[in-house]
Design goal:
By secondary structure, the protein is α/β, with parallel strands linked by helices. The chain is built from 14 helices and 25 strands.
Length: 588
């Protein structure tokens, strides 16, 4: 494997290598490309002089090594500076048996477009075939399936002068792309005679660099005698002028495609460090403050602002950011409030009591109890909570708020007032192999596929737009205390793909038109408190263009636990995942 590539967050450094088809002497060639500014060298593993016949005599018995000695370079240099490739004369799929047998001995080199689909191969005004985008991806999919999704097998995309459709490029972004092979022939010449890429190629390269791909330059210089260094300088220029990372990307750096178990704050007491991470979100608490401000203005007329003191209960107060937001909203609105900060975590209660003693004063009462069992001294005009998980209800906000609903006066308000979960089918070879690697010795061999994961989605392809799944409203009518849910969703997939699971998101309406969202289409700008959630499936499911993916989802509950079950029902059925909560539950 070659040197690490540029970071996904938009670092300027581009990891670029030089591809050579014949390298008589490794150390010398490595020094030469290093002087030109390249980071690594891509060369055939076999030197042509080692080419031989393994099945026929006398060549079969010829003495000597089959390839280069590992003593030519240090172990570190082999690992970081050299990318090996199979020699072009190695043809394991040859129809000739002696050639095939002789070739049996990885980056897998795959062109973005098949040679027969490139424009220079077409006759006259003939348009490229519709299936051209599918051909090379089909080759790759067949190969990685034969390799059983081995996580050490990646793909090196060979970029040609003609590019596939935007949808085809999106699909490649869900594959384990490790390198982009960039021939010098695809570069154009600018007015000063220097090599540059077309706008379409620039956009493609920038998207690939977000996946930390390495760039391998192939071919000889062909732009007015300009040296290879001019190509490298241009690539560095592209890297330096990429858009700067967003606040969300900066926060998520290092967590891309990293699987995490969802929090269970009702069953477990969160650590102070976890609270600290969430409290850094600049957007979430600003939106909460605005929602509380608007609510206070609506509930207390101007003529009553001196006499009407609103009772605000912050349920699940943590270390106090919502209490602070409520106090700020009160001052902003010019309305009086009396606040109860209710928290069951004894570690967080200590912090709340410190805030109350040093900053908040008698305006805030700290209650060290579980909100579901607390008997308040008075009813609340407004209850405020931040109990939502990545899938909306997966941290048991419905159960908590229903248990505390008796604290609310008739006509009282809940912030948030509703939230909806969303699901979308996705393809991600990376996430599938990561989930498969989570197998635990003392559990069922496939238990890791029957639980959701919180993950910063990065190397993935969304096959269709998200659709709403489960919705909860607060306060809840007395007749609607059952929080079990079921939905059947259908997604039409436009191109050939492979389904590896479902991405989960949520949207919440805090008050009026003030919302928070992690759904990609409506994501609250700059908010990073939640990553999406991922529901895997046990077996990758090939999908043909135009087919409909249908999935059944259940939210099941008992007095002691809640769990999800899911199953793909079309175009082919999958196994029911997590029946009866056998692999994953959320404790009440």
């Amino acid at each position: 494997m070659a040197a690490a590539a540029a970071g996904a967050g938009g670092a300027a450094r581009v990891s670029a290598g030089r591809d050579l088809s014949c390298v008589p002497e490794v150390a010398g060639a490595l020094s030469a490309v290093a002087r030109q500014g390249f980071d690594f060298l891509c060369l055939p593993l076999f030197h042509p002089r080692h080419r031989r016949e393994f099945r026929e005599e006398p060549a079969r018995s010829r003495p000597g090594p089959q390839t280069r000695s590992d003593l030519l370079l240090s172990g570190r240099d082999w690992n970081t500076l050299i990318v090996g490739k199979l020699s072009p004369w190695i043809r394991p799929d040859s129809p000739l048996e002696h050639v095939r047998r002789n070739s049996e001995a990885v980056w897998v080199r795959v062109p973005l477009l098949a040679p027969e689909d490139e424009r220079e191969e077409l006759v006259g005004n003939e348009e490229p075939a519709r299936g051209g985008d599918e051909t090379t991806w089909g080759w790759w999919h067949d190969f990685r399936t034969l390799c059983d999704y081995n996580k050490r097998v990646g793909v090196a995309l060979e970029v040609g002068a003609d590019l596939p459709s935007s949808a085809a490029i999106d699909r490649w972004l869900g594959e384990p792309v490790k390198a982009a092979l960039l021939p010098t022939a695809v570069f154009l010449t600018n007015k000063k005679g220097f090599p540059v890429l077309s706008r379409a190629h620039q956009r493609l390269l920038c998207r690939l660099l977000k996946l930390e791909v390495q760039v391998v330059l192939t071919g000889a210089p062909r732009h007015g005698g300009k040296p290879l260094g001019s190509y490298l300088q241009y690539l560095e220029h592209l890297g330096q002028h990429r858009p700067p990372p967003s606040a969300y990307e900066l926060f998520a750096r290092g967590y891309e495609d990293y699987l995490q178990s969802p929090l269970q704050p009702l069953m477990d007491n969160l650590e102070s460090q976890t609270y600290e991470v969430f409290e850094k979100d600049p957007i979430k608490y600003s939106q909460y403050q605005q929602a509380i401000y608007r609510c206070l203005l609506d509930r207390v007329p101007e003529e009553e602002k001196e006499s009407n003191v609103q009772v605000v209960m912050v349920l699940g107060a943590g270390r106090g950011p919502l209490v602070t937001a409520a106090l700020r909203a009160s001052r902003q609105a010019g309305r009086g409030v009396r606040i109860y900060a209710v928290e069951k975590n004894p570690n967080a209660v200590v912090t709340l009591q410190s805030w109350q003693y040093e900053e908040w004063g008698a305006q805030v009462t700290v209650v060290a109890e579980d909100m579901r069992g607390w008997s308040p001294p008075e009813g609340a005009d407004l209850i405020v909570s931040e109990l939502l998980g990545s899938f909306g209800d997966n941290e048991l906000s419905p159960e908590c708020l229903q248990g505390a609903q008796r604290c609310l006066k008739e006509g009282g308000v809940s912030i948030p007032r509703s939230y909806t979960s969303f699901l979308a089918p996705i393809s991600s070879s990376k996430l599938y192999t990561e989930v498969r690697g989570c197998r635990e010795r003392d559990r069922d061999p496939e238990a890791q596929f029957e639980m959701p994961y919180v993950v910063r989605l990065h190397n993935y392809h969304q096959l269709a737009a998200p659709q709403p799944c489960f919705t909860f409203h607060h306060p809840t009518p007395e007749a609607a205390n059952d929080n079990s849910r079921y939905c059947l969703l259908a997604f039409r997939v436009e191109g050939n793909a492979v389904l590896h699971g479902f991405a989960g998101y949520f949207e919440t309406a805090l008050y009026g038109d003030i919302t928070l969202s992690i759904r990609p289409e409506t994501h609250s700008p700059g908010m990073f408190s939640w990553f999406p959630i991922f529901f895997p499936i046990k077996q990758p499911l090939p999908i043909k263009a135009g087919e409909e993916v249908t999935v059944a989802f259940w939210r099941c509950s008992t007095p002691k636990k809640v769990w999800y079950e899911w199953a793909v029902t079309g175009p082919a059925p999958s196994a029911l995942h997590n029946p009866g909560g056998r692999s994953y539950t959320i404790g009440l």
